[in-house]
Amino acid sequence: PNDADIVLTIDFMQLRDVDRVDRFISAFADPMQQHGIIDEVTDLETAMREFDDVAQEEIGFRFAEDVLSWIGRSASLAIWVPDGLFDITSPESFEVPKVMLVLQVRDQEGAQEFLDRLVLDLEQDGAIIDQFDIAGTAAYTFDGDDPVVVALAEDRFVIGESTATVREALELEAADSIAQTDEFQLLAGAIGDDPIATVYASPALGSALEEAFASAGIELLASDEPATAAMGAMVLDEDGLVFRTAAPLAEGVAPTAVGVWPAQLPGATFGYVDMVLPEDFVSEAMDVLFTVAGDEDLTEADLRELAAPIDEVIGMSLIDDLLPQFGREVIFAAGPAADGALTADIDPGLGILFGIGVADSEVVGRAFDNATELLASEGFEFADVGGLRIVSIDGTPFASFRLDDDALFIGSSPDQLAQFGSDGGLTDSAIYERVDDVTVGDGLFMFTDFAAIVDAYVTDPAAGDILAPIAGMGVGSKVEGDVEVTEFRIVVDY
User: Is 1 within 8 Å of 172 (Cβ atoms)?
Assistant: First the structure.
């Protein structure tokens, strides 16, 4: 029905490629067996037979023969969220969501035989079963602590917890199904037809969440714009595992974009997150800060009082003068380093780099000069070397800064920051190109050279072998019409 709040769907067609599923499982299960963590690796067909043996003994049915033989391409679970489920101010009002399972039927006769056997077996076990008619279809109610209503229509097997829900599903015309709503079709078209499983969240669910936060006094999640639907999916393909999301672009909101800095990262970088920020990012963030502070009974004057010690260090107002200078692009990266604060206790040494766009470098420069002068009087040592300002304690460098005309970069390792520049190297590396080639979008706004991290820091042989199949990870996005599609890709070596 088109009023369901959440719909989870499994596409059995995507699971029929047994070799693809077995290959993915074996990539991680084989080393687990080799190291004695599990006794044996069971392929999908063998696992199904073993499951059926247990099911036959316990409930008298074999799933592969008695159920899969008549199920069609998909199975969907619909969930209706009761009013007040997300009301965090009144947890005592919690109600269990209403659910209904719909199985697509490709063999009507086989499905009917299964239903007849189910009814007969339950009657023999003493269950109270009522049979009645819904829209010309025989339906059954199995009474118990949690009553269940079951019915078999021409093309669908329906299991629900109320007669009203099952009746709605049976009487439903195709044009009135949730799959025919504009929101669902828009997102399903963008998400593609290759997922093993999808989950759809309706606009009503988004509204319920916004209302719940608003009732708790958190107004920043409320919006004048109506709530929109969203869809998520899981895909298993030749290159590994993908988690994909699709959501309509809000009016006036730019799609996620990758900046220019990943191309300037050293080739050995372990990973990064990089995003282009809206022009009004800082002002919006300050508005949110003041809103949250107001919810906590803090006034703007209170916030300014809290910032006063920092104002004294930088010689200007943090809120009015310095923070508004930052925005446009931000990057956070990590990689191997020969010096800095994170090399003494971490082997091999690690460097952390942070960068953010700057509107007026002169203002930011004055703030850092003022801070440098004050901190130097407290025993910190500063040296300007090769365009970097290096901060040391007792002669040991632990951080560095670089202020360009349009950006500020802060690194825990002077050596790592010195390597950051126009020559770069990371985006030309084989592992980056491999991940980027199979991930949607023009570039990655998140990337991880997972194999390099494992090689550098995982010393346990078993853990190293189990994690070894993961080559890299990446996140990219693209826009299709009015929908933004985002992928989190895990690239696997088979």
Answer: yes
Which residues are registered as beta bridge partners of 215? none
Look up the pTM and report it: 0.86
Inter-helix orientation angle 300-314/361-376, to 10°: 70
Mode of pairing for the β-strands spanning 148-152 and 71-80: unpaired
Are the beta carbons of 262 and 422 closer than 8 angstroms? no
pLDDT of res. 234: 97
Token pair recorded at residue 215: 């009732």
Separation of alpha carbons 271 and 262, rounded Å: 9
The closest alpha carbon to 239, from 433, 485, 439, 487, belongs to: 439
Sign, Cα dihedral of 431, 434, 440, 443: positive
**Residue ranges of the chain whose pLDDT lies below 50:** 220-223
pLDDT of residue 68: 83
Burial class (CB in 10 A: 0-12, 13-18, 19+), 195: buried
Q: Residue 473, Cβ neighbours under 10 Å: how many?
A: 20
CB within 8 A of 172, min separation 6: which ones?
1
| Contacts of residue 319, Cβ cutoff 8 Å, sequence gap at least 6 | 286, 303, 304, 307
- Give the chain's length: 494
Instruction: Report the chain's terminal Cα–Cα distance, integer Å.
Output: 41
For residue 202, is it left (φ>0), alpha (ψ between -120 and 50) or beta? beta
